[in-house]
Design a protein that fits this description.
The chain has 202 residues and is α/β, with parallel strands linked by helices. Helix 1 runs parallel beside helix 4 and helix 2 packs across helix 3.
Length: 202
């Protein structure tokens, strides 16, 4: 899977794909980070670094980290910004101390993770009062079949329901503060209404 994303890195930056599919969720993250005045932030599965770079440029100064498991994606991310700390690591084993961060964000990637393990790790690295914000595809749309069609059995494309997301967040120790759709400028079955879930570490 990491080899696939390494090969796909250049196509991932295609402007229409970013504008219409990924940017709405990224805009939600920027708004949340601005609202919470988060200073120590990590973008999990950061890809080519578009969101992490936006965070650094639009909300800095502060500590901004981007974490991914694709060397190809990270190579493009490093070329994009020298001010973000780019790290090769899995979502389930982050290279940060306990309580080191104010916010953990991830867009359009949660279906690739060992979800309970990743949420437990996000909780570990957050300081009290910090939050994690995750956007996911919604299972009532066509996202899961499309992911399976593209990737086959190579990807654990687990697309949890709203209730399942809440349960996983609470099991990891978060208080769920937000669960709502992410609006998109147009609708297609595989991009309509990503769901945003925000959990606070008490």
């Amino acid at each position: 899977m990491t080899r696939f994303w390494g090969r796909a890195a250049k196509a991932y930056d295609w402007a229409p794909l970013q504008q219409w599919v990924y940017r709405p969720a990224q805009d939600e993250m920027i708004a949340l980070l601005r609202q919470h005045e988060s200073q120590r932030v990590v973008d999990i599965a950061c890809g080519t670094g578009i969101l992490a770079t936006r965070i650094q440029e639009e909300l800095g100064p502060g500590q901004v980290h981007g974490v991914d498991m694709s060397e190809g994606m990270l190579a493009q991310a490093k070329a994009r910004s020298a001010l973000v700390d780019w790290q090769f690591a899995p979502a389930e084993k982050l290279p940060f101390d306990d309580g080191a961060l104010d916010a953990v964000v991830s867009t359009s990637a949660f279906h690739f993770f060992d979800q309970p393990a990743a949420l437990a790790e996000f909780h570990r690295v957050l300081a009290p009062g910090g939050f994690t914000a995750i956007t996911t595809f919604t299972p009532d749309r066509a996202s899961a079949p499309i992911l399976r069609r593209i990737f086959g059995d190579r990807v654990p494309a687990s697309v949890p329901s709203k209730a399942e997301m809440r349960q996983m967040f609470e099991t990891a120790g978060f208080e769920v503060a937000v669960q709502r759709p992410v609006p998109h400028p147009f609708t297609l079955p595989f991009v309509e209404f990503d769901r945003l879930t925000v959990g606070i570490k008490q």
